[in-house]
Amino acid sequence: MHWVRPQGAGLRVSSALAHSQGAPFTGIGAHAAPKHDGRMGTGRGMRAILWVAAAAAAVMGSVGPCWAWGATGHEWVSGIAIEKLPDSLPAFVRTPEAAAEIAVMGRELDRSKGAGKTHDAERDPGHYVDLADDGSVEGVLPLDQLPETREAYDTALRAKGLTQYKAGYLPYAIVDGWQQLRKDFAYWRAAVKGAETARTTEERAWFEKDRALREKLTLRDIGIWSHYGADASQPLHVSVHYNGWGQYPNPNGYTTRKIHAYIEGEFVRRNLARAGVADLVGSYQPCGCSIEERTRVLLRASLAEVEPLYALEKEGGFKFGDPRGIVFATARLAAGATAVRDMIVQAWLESADTPVGYPMVNVRDIESGKVRATRELFGAD
Ligand SMILES: [Zn+2]
């Protein structure tokens, strides 16, 4: 849910736009963060939800809050991403049961909203990032200059009178979860090899049990994390114009109405077809790039669709059943599923060269037989 953000963020952005660049960041610079969902957690919480629901009902004639892409959009993105995995990934990730469970988990981060003020205030800004039209966070921090950690990101924003909680930290949510997934896969590889090379029945049983647990954790981590990739494919999750054009120069007269929830929720649920989204997801494409760069590419692609979205809305393209809006939203959902699938594959590939255990050993050396995986390596006190 994006449209629940605090009012006034846009005003702050306007003044921030006067500054062109942030400090000379040398970090990887990979991501920005989303903000729609986060706005609810700042204490406006349920009040915001109710307000949004009321506004949506009044404006659109619909009822009920919408969530990010909406439950429908999130389930499609997460589920299709799994269905489109190549056969080279472990079978436990690709079963129909895994796809079905991950699809449902794809909307979990919206379902957990309202868990409590501490929870919401910290997590909601992970769903969005407020990019200005020039592609910089709130007009002050270019995407390619994002530092490697959220702490440094927040520090840089605070120097401009902003915070990660106002600007959103979606890029960091994506990379953080992806790094966890890469680690999950690395431990799974080690557990498989550990069972193969075990010297006792007990040791083999331990590794097989550990592998089974790793599989549960991995599916859970994919399911929860996949939410962010879907958010990043929604143009209104990566823009300062996140719910109506806002108080910015508006020579084309784009709407300032709260359109966010309707487009990502009800419009998708009642007009789009899952098969239409799946058909647009091609095969995995290596990018030869870091996860940070892949994340930037996704965010920029979504940002590039912000003005087209508003132009289409102005032409009536998101009226119920309009094929132009259907084509638009279908393409964005497919972009989300494609990105999530590609990131999962990249995590799997890079997990072959990831350290595990303590003291850390590279999975490469375990799989090659150079180092034998032992219980002590993964269970020492
Ligand atoms: Zn979200």
Task: Describe the model.
This protein is mainly alpha-helical and 381 residues long. The protein has one domain. Helices cover 56% and strands 2% of the residues. It contains 18 helices and four strands. The strands form two sheets. It has a two-stranded antiparallel ribbon. It has a two-stranded antiparallel sheet with strand order 3-4. β3 and β4 (361-362) form a beta hairpin. The protein is globular. The model is unreliable at 6-67 (pLDDT under 50). Zinc ion (ZN) binds at residues 37, 68, 109-110, 127, 227, 231. Residues 37, 68, 109-110, 127, 227, 231 line the site of zinc ion.
Mean pLDDT: 86
- Main sheet properties: 2 strands, antiparallel
Shape: globular
List all distinct small molecules, including ions and cofactors, that are bound in this structure: zinc ion
Number of helices: 18
Specify the structural class: mainly alpha
Q: Which helices and strands appear, and what pairs or packs with what?
A:
Layout lengths: L8 H8 L28 H16 L9 H14 L7 H4 L1 H10 L2 H4 L5 H7 L12 E2 L3 E2 L7 H9 L5 H4 L2 H27 L4 H32 L27 H12 L2 H6 L11 H13 L2 H9 L8 H29 L3 E2 L4 E2 H5 L7 H5 L2
Antiparallel strand pairs: 1-2, 3-4
Helix pairs in contact: 3-5, 3-11, 3-12, 3-16, 5-11, 10-11, 10-14, 10-16, 11-16, 12-16, 14-16
Zinc ion binds next to α6 and α11.
